[in-house]
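Batch 3, record 17
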Amino acid sequence: MGLTGSIILVTGASSGIGRETAVLLSSLNARVVLVGRNRERLGQTLSGLSGEGHRVAAFDLARTEEIPQWFRSLASDMGPMNGLVHAAGKQLTMPVRFVTPQATDELLRTNLSSAIMLVRAFCQKNCHTATSSVVFISSVVGLVGRPDTSVYSASKAALIGLSKSLAVELATERIRVNCIAPAFVQTEMLDEAREMLTPEQYKALEELHPLGFGTARDIANAVAFLLADTGRWITGSTLVVDGGYSAR
Amino acid sequence: MTREEFLLELDTILDLPAGTLKGHEKLEKLEQWDSTALMGFIALADTNNGARVSPRQIVNCSTIADLLSLAGVAGSSS
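Prediction for the assembled complex:
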Protein backbone atom coordinates (compact mmCIF):
# COMPACT_ATOMS: atom_id res chain seq x y z
CA MET A 1 0.00 0.00 0.00
CA GLY A 2 3.05 2.25 -0.17
CA LEU A 3 3.33 3.02 3.52
CA THR A 4 6.80 1.60 4.08
CA GLY A 5 8.90 4.15 5.89
CA SER A 6 6.03 6.60 6.26
CA ILE A 7 5.71 8.49 9.50
CA ILE A 8 2.13 8.78 10.64
CA LEU A 9 0.78 10.47 13.73
CA VAL A 10 -2.28 8.84 15.27
CA THR A 11 -4.27 10.53 18.00
CA GLY A 12 -6.47 8.53 20.32
CA ALA A 13 -3.87 5.80 20.08
CA SER A 14 -4.38 4.45 23.58
CA SER A 15 -7.56 2.58 22.74
CA GLY A 16 -10.17 1.59 20.20
CA ILE A 17 -9.94 2.74 16.62
CA GLY A 18 -6.77 4.77 17.21
CA ARG A 19 -4.96 1.83 18.75
CA GLU A 20 -6.00 -0.62 16.07
CA THR A 21 -5.07 1.88 13.37
CA ALA A 22 -1.60 2.23 14.87
CA VAL A 23 -1.21 -1.54 14.98
CA LEU A 24 -2.26 -1.96 11.37
CA LEU A 25 -0.08 0.88 10.09
CA SER A 26 2.93 -0.60 11.85
CA SER A 27 2.25 -3.93 10.19
CA LEU A 28 2.34 -2.06 6.88
CA ASN A 29 5.84 -0.86 7.81
CA ALA A 30 4.92 2.68 8.74
CA ARG A 31 6.48 4.39 11.73
CA VAL A 32 3.77 5.55 14.07
CA VAL A 33 3.68 8.44 16.51
CA LEU A 34 1.23 7.45 19.23
CA VAL A 35 -0.68 10.33 20.77
CA GLY A 36 -2.99 10.25 23.75
CA ARG A 37 -3.21 11.53 27.31
CA ASN A 38 -2.31 8.33 29.11
CA ARG A 39 1.35 7.43 28.70
CA GLU A 40 0.91 4.01 30.24
CA ARG A 41 -1.86 3.05 27.85
CA LEU A 42 0.13 4.40 24.93
CA GLY A 43 2.95 2.17 26.09
CA GLN A 44 0.59 -0.79 25.89
CA THR A 45 -0.24 0.17 22.32
CA LEU A 46 3.46 0.50 21.54
CA SER A 47 4.12 -3.01 22.79
CA GLY A 48 1.64 -4.31 20.23
CA LEU A 49 3.20 -2.61 17.21
CA SER A 50 5.33 -4.32 14.58
CA GLY A 51 8.72 -2.99 13.56
CA GLU A 52 10.71 -0.16 15.05
CA GLY A 53 11.01 3.59 15.02
CA HIS A 54 7.69 4.31 16.69
CA ARG A 55 7.23 7.01 19.28
CA VAL A 56 4.99 7.59 22.26
CA ALA A 57 3.98 11.26 22.47
CA ALA A 58 1.67 11.73 25.42
CA PHE A 59 -0.19 15.01 25.04
CA ASP A 60 -3.54 16.45 26.01
CA LEU A 61 -5.08 17.73 22.79
CA ALA A 62 -7.40 19.94 24.83
CA ARG A 63 -4.34 22.20 25.15
CA THR A 64 -5.10 23.45 21.67
CA GLU A 65 -2.92 26.54 21.90
CA GLU A 66 0.14 24.36 22.41
CA ILE A 67 -0.49 21.96 19.53
CA PRO A 68 1.51 23.81 16.82
CA GLN A 69 4.68 24.05 18.84
CA TRP A 70 4.35 20.52 20.16
CA PHE A 71 3.89 19.20 16.63
CA ARG A 72 6.88 21.18 15.35
CA SER A 73 8.99 19.65 18.05
CA LEU A 74 7.86 16.14 17.13
CA ALA A 75 8.50 16.68 13.45
CA SER A 76 11.90 18.14 14.20
CA ASP A 77 12.77 14.96 16.01
CA MET A 78 11.03 12.35 13.83
CA GLY A 79 11.11 14.04 10.46
CA PRO A 80 8.25 15.44 8.36
CA MET A 81 5.11 13.35 8.63
CA ASN A 82 3.39 11.57 5.78
CA GLY A 83 0.05 11.31 7.53
CA LEU A 84 -2.15 12.40 10.38
CA VAL A 85 -5.03 10.37 11.78
CA HIS A 86 -7.28 12.11 14.27
CA ALA A 87 -9.06 9.32 16.13
CA ALA A 88 -9.16 11.00 19.53
CA GLY A 89 -12.59 12.07 20.59
CA LYS A 90 -15.15 12.26 23.34
CA GLN A 91 -18.58 10.75 23.20
CA LEU A 92 -21.68 12.23 24.80
CA THR A 93 -25.04 10.52 25.04
CA MET A 94 -27.33 13.19 26.46
CA PRO A 95 -30.84 14.43 25.60
CA VAL A 96 -30.62 18.03 24.45
CA ARG A 97 -32.78 19.19 27.37
CA PHE A 98 -29.90 18.23 29.69
CA VAL A 99 -26.99 19.44 27.58
CA THR A 100 -24.88 22.08 29.28
CA PRO A 101 -22.64 24.76 27.78
CA GLN A 102 -19.70 23.28 29.69
CA ALA A 103 -20.17 19.79 28.29
CA THR A 104 -20.68 21.22 24.82
CA ASP A 105 -17.54 23.32 24.95
CA GLU A 106 -15.48 20.44 26.31
CA LEU A 107 -16.62 18.01 23.64
CA LEU A 108 -16.21 20.45 20.78
CA ARG A 109 -12.75 21.32 22.02
CA THR A 110 -11.64 17.69 21.94
CA ASN A 111 -13.47 16.56 18.82
CA LEU A 112 -13.26 19.64 16.62
CA SER A 113 -10.93 22.36 17.85
CA SER A 114 -8.10 19.90 18.28
CA ALA A 115 -8.66 18.63 14.73
CA ILE A 116 -8.37 22.15 13.35
CA MET A 117 -5.22 22.89 15.32
CA LEU A 118 -3.67 19.55 14.36
CA VAL A 119 -4.07 20.35 10.68
CA ARG A 120 -2.76 23.84 11.26
CA ALA A 121 0.26 22.26 12.91
CA PHE A 122 0.62 19.66 10.17
CA CYS A 123 0.75 22.43 7.55
CA GLN A 124 3.76 24.09 9.13
CA LYS A 125 7.03 24.08 7.28
CA ASN A 126 8.99 20.84 7.61
CA CYS A 127 6.10 19.13 9.38
CA HIS A 128 4.68 17.25 6.40
CA THR A 129 6.08 15.50 3.37
CA ALA A 130 5.70 16.52 -0.28
CA THR A 131 2.51 14.50 -0.54
CA SER A 132 0.60 13.64 2.57
CA SER A 133 -2.78 12.61 3.92
CA VAL A 134 -5.01 13.59 6.82
CA VAL A 135 -7.84 11.37 8.03
CA PHE A 136 -10.47 12.45 10.54
CA ILE A 137 -12.55 9.82 12.28
CA SER A 138 -16.00 11.30 12.01
CA SER A 139 -19.16 9.25 12.59
CA VAL A 140 -22.24 8.08 10.75
CA VAL A 141 -24.27 10.10 13.26
CA GLY A 142 -22.69 13.13 11.65
CA LEU A 143 -24.65 12.13 8.53
CA VAL A 144 -27.89 10.64 9.83
CA GLY A 145 -29.95 11.54 12.86
CA ARG A 146 -29.84 9.68 16.12
CA PRO A 147 -31.54 10.84 19.32
CA ASP A 148 -29.62 11.90 22.42
CA THR A 149 -26.40 12.54 20.49
CA SER A 150 -26.93 16.09 19.25
CA VAL A 151 -23.66 17.57 20.50
CA TYR A 152 -21.57 14.58 19.46
CA SER A 153 -23.31 14.49 16.07
CA ALA A 154 -22.65 18.19 15.59
CA SER A 155 -18.95 17.71 16.31
CA LYS A 156 -18.69 14.81 13.87
CA ALA A 157 -20.64 16.59 11.15
CA ALA A 158 -18.31 19.54 11.64
CA LEU A 159 -15.34 17.31 10.83
CA ILE A 160 -16.95 16.48 7.50
CA GLY A 161 -17.37 20.14 6.61
CA LEU A 162 -13.87 20.84 7.85
CA SER A 163 -12.39 18.11 5.65
CA LYS A 164 -14.06 19.49 2.51
CA SER A 165 -12.80 23.00 3.04
CA LEU A 166 -9.32 21.81 3.91
CA ALA A 167 -9.22 19.44 0.94
CA VAL A 168 -9.69 22.36 -1.43
CA GLU A 169 -7.46 24.73 0.51
CA LEU A 170 -4.55 22.31 0.88
CA ALA A 171 -4.68 20.61 -2.51
CA THR A 172 -1.91 22.83 -3.87
CA GLU A 173 0.31 21.51 -1.08
CA ARG A 174 -0.68 17.95 -2.00
CA ILE A 175 -2.23 17.41 1.40
CA ARG A 176 -5.30 15.23 1.04
CA VAL A 177 -7.98 15.48 3.74
CA ASN A 178 -10.74 12.91 4.19
CA CYS A 179 -13.11 11.58 6.78
CA ILE A 180 -14.22 8.13 7.77
CA ALA A 181 -17.73 7.79 9.15
CA PRO A 182 -18.05 4.64 11.23
CA ALA A 183 -21.21 3.46 12.84
CA PHE A 184 -21.01 1.63 16.15
CA VAL A 185 -17.78 -0.26 16.56
CA GLN A 186 -16.88 -2.66 19.36
CA THR A 187 -14.59 -0.45 21.42
CA GLU A 188 -14.48 1.04 24.90
CA MET A 189 -16.52 3.95 23.59
CA LEU A 190 -19.34 1.56 22.69
CA ASP A 191 -19.02 0.00 26.13
CA GLU A 192 -19.48 3.44 27.69
CA ALA A 193 -22.52 4.13 25.52
CA ARG A 194 -23.89 0.72 26.48
CA GLU A 195 -23.97 1.78 30.12
CA MET A 196 -26.52 4.42 29.19
CA LEU A 197 -28.82 1.89 27.53
CA THR A 198 -31.10 -0.84 28.72
CA PRO A 199 -30.34 -4.33 27.35
CA GLU A 200 -33.30 -3.93 25.03
CA GLN A 201 -32.04 -0.59 23.76
CA TYR A 202 -28.57 -2.06 23.18
CA LYS A 203 -30.02 -4.97 21.21
CA ALA A 204 -32.09 -2.56 19.16
CA LEU A 205 -28.94 -0.54 18.46
CA GLU A 206 -27.13 -3.61 17.17
CA GLU A 207 -30.09 -4.44 14.95
CA LEU A 208 -29.79 -1.05 13.28
CA HIS A 209 -26.62 -2.42 11.64
CA PRO A 210 -27.53 -4.92 8.90
CA LEU A 211 -24.04 -6.39 9.25
CA GLY A 212 -23.91 -6.10 13.05
CA PHE A 213 -21.46 -4.01 15.05
CA GLY A 214 -18.14 -3.31 13.41
CA THR A 215 -14.65 -3.83 14.73
CA ALA A 216 -11.83 -1.37 15.14
CA ARG A 217 -9.95 -3.26 12.43
CA ASP A 218 -12.75 -2.50 9.94
CA ILE A 219 -12.08 1.19 10.45
CA ALA A 220 -8.31 0.84 10.53
CA ASN A 221 -8.45 -0.83 7.12
CA ALA A 222 -10.27 2.18 5.73
CA VAL A 223 -7.77 4.57 7.32
CA ALA A 224 -4.85 2.73 5.73
CA PHE A 225 -6.61 2.82 2.36
CA LEU A 226 -6.96 6.61 2.54
CA LEU A 227 -3.45 7.20 3.85
CA ALA A 228 -1.68 5.04 1.30
CA ASP A 229 -1.22 5.32 -2.46
CA THR A 230 -4.59 3.64 -2.79
CA GLY A 231 -6.12 6.98 -1.76
CA ARG A 232 -3.99 9.00 -4.13
CA TRP A 233 -6.90 10.61 -5.92
CA ILE A 234 -9.27 10.91 -2.99
CA THR A 235 -9.71 14.14 -1.07
CA GLY A 236 -12.64 15.95 0.52
CA SER A 237 -14.52 12.65 0.78
CA THR A 238 -16.24 10.86 3.60
CA LEU A 239 -15.86 7.11 3.48
CA VAL A 240 -18.82 5.55 5.22
CA VAL A 241 -17.86 2.32 6.99
CA ASP A 242 -20.99 1.44 8.92
CA GLY A 243 -22.21 -2.11 8.35
CA GLY A 244 -25.19 -0.68 6.48
CA TYR A 245 -26.40 1.59 9.32
CA SER A 246 -27.05 4.54 7.01
CA ALA A 247 -28.47 2.42 4.19
CA ARG A 248 -31.76 1.79 5.99
CA MET B 1 -25.62 24.05 45.20
CA THR B 2 -27.58 23.34 48.38
CA ARG B 3 -29.38 20.12 49.07
CA GLU B 4 -32.74 21.81 48.59
CA GLU B 5 -31.71 23.36 45.29
CA PHE B 6 -30.42 20.01 44.02
CA LEU B 7 -33.69 18.32 44.98
CA LEU B 8 -35.63 20.97 43.06
CA GLU B 9 -33.47 20.31 40.01
CA LEU B 10 -34.16 16.61 40.36
CA ASP B 11 -37.89 17.38 40.53
CA THR B 12 -37.50 19.07 37.14
CA ILE B 13 -35.54 16.21 35.66
CA LEU B 14 -38.18 13.73 36.80
CA ASP B 15 -41.04 15.98 35.67
CA LEU B 16 -42.33 16.20 39.23
CA PRO B 17 -43.94 19.23 40.86
CA ALA B 18 -41.36 21.41 42.61
CA GLY B 19 -40.80 20.29 46.17
CA THR B 20 -41.90 16.69 45.63
CA LEU B 21 -38.62 14.97 46.37
CA LYS B 22 -37.36 14.98 49.95
CA GLY B 23 -34.49 12.52 49.69
CA HIS B 24 -35.88 9.36 51.22
CA GLU B 25 -37.57 8.15 48.04
CA LYS B 26 -36.56 4.78 46.64
CA LEU B 27 -35.55 4.99 43.00
CA GLU B 28 -37.31 1.74 42.12
CA LYS B 29 -40.59 3.30 43.28
CA LEU B 30 -40.19 6.36 41.07
CA GLU B 31 -41.88 5.70 37.75
CA GLN B 32 -40.04 8.62 36.19
CA TRP B 33 -36.60 7.27 37.07
CA ASP B 34 -35.49 5.93 33.68
CA SER B 35 -32.49 6.13 31.37
CA THR B 36 -33.40 9.68 30.37
CA ALA B 37 -33.56 10.81 33.98
CA LEU B 38 -30.25 9.05 34.62
CA MET B 39 -28.60 11.11 31.91
CA GLY B 40 -30.16 14.25 33.34
CA PHE B 41 -28.74 13.43 36.75
CA ILE B 42 -25.27 12.92 35.28
CA ALA B 43 -25.46 16.31 33.60
CA LEU B 44 -26.75 17.95 36.79
CA ALA B 45 -24.03 16.44 38.97
CA ASP B 46 -21.35 17.55 36.53
CA THR B 47 -22.59 21.06 35.90
CA ASN B 48 -23.55 22.06 39.38
CA ASN B 49 -21.15 20.11 41.53
CA GLY B 50 -18.34 19.23 39.20
CA ALA B 51 -18.96 15.59 40.09
CA ARG B 52 -18.25 13.11 37.31
CA VAL B 53 -20.50 10.15 37.93
CA SER B 54 -20.89 7.08 35.78
CA PRO B 55 -23.96 4.97 35.10
CA ARG B 56 -22.20 2.12 36.89
CA GLN B 57 -22.02 4.19 40.08
CA ILE B 58 -25.63 5.24 39.76
CA VAL B 59 -26.77 1.62 39.50
CA ASN B 60 -25.51 1.16 43.05
CA CYS B 61 -27.80 3.91 44.34
CA SER B 62 -31.17 2.89 45.74
CA THR B 63 -32.54 6.21 47.02
CA ILE B 64 -32.60 9.88 46.08
CA ALA B 65 -30.33 10.49 49.07
CA ASP B 66 -27.81 8.07 47.54
CA LEU B 67 -27.83 10.16 44.38
CA LEU B 68 -27.23 13.33 46.36
CA SER B 69 -24.35 11.71 48.15
CA LEU B 70 -22.89 10.48 44.87
CA ALA B 71 -23.15 13.97 43.44
CA GLY B 72 -21.31 15.39 46.45
CA VAL B 73 -24.18 17.56 47.56
CA ALA B 74 -23.44 19.23 50.90
CA GLY B 75 -25.61 18.07 53.74
CA SER B 76 -26.61 14.87 51.99
CA SER B 77 -26.58 11.52 53.67
CA SER B 78 -27.56 8.03 52.60
